[in-house]
Write a structure and sequence with these properties.
This protein is of the alpha/beta class and 118 residues long. The protein has one domain: 5'-nuclease (Rossmann fold, 3-Layer(aba) Sandwich). It has 6 helices and 4 strands, in the order E-H-H-E-H-H-E-H-H-E. A 4-stranded parallel β-sheet has the order 3-2-1-4, sandwiched between helices. Helix 1 (8-14) crosses helix 3. It is globular and about 40 Å long. 28% of the residues are buried.
């Protein structure tokens, strides 16, 4: 199976109505049988919706429930966190949170990681 992992910005664009082209592409990626996001992505997405977009909590809850129904949401283990710190931060100069996204994608055998710049 060709699973792919989505970074937080892709999920944000999927629910955005300001940049239609990016939103359409993000929706194509998000709402198919092969997409995976992590609990980290869910948390970051929720924070952006609350703080930056000032969405009501009930709206965010509905969105999260939709994500749970349509997308695989992966958790990450302590081993993944350690791999992110030891291998990816050091070797590739990633920030910890970016390294955690990469490590979780690798742990879930995702062939592709989509982010804002992909």
């Amino acid at each position: 199976m060709n699973r792919h992992f989505l970074d937080t910005n892709v999920v944000i664009y999927a629910y955005s109505n300001t940049e239609i082209e990016k939103s359409n592409r993000a929706n194509e990626l998000l709402f198919n049988d092969h997409s995976i996001i992590s609990t980290q992505v869910v948390n970051e997405f929720s924070n952006v919706c609350l703080r930056k977009f000032r969405q009501p909590e009930q709206t965010i809850i509905k969105t999260l429930l939709e994500l749970a129904r349509t997308t695989t949401i992966a958790n990450f283990s302590l081993a993944t966190q350690l791999e992110a710190l030891i291998k990816l931060c050091d070797a590739h100069c990633f920030s910890y949170y970016d390294a955690l996204i990469v490590a979780t994608a690798m742990e879930n055998e995702c062939a592709i990681l989509y982010c804002e710049s992909s």
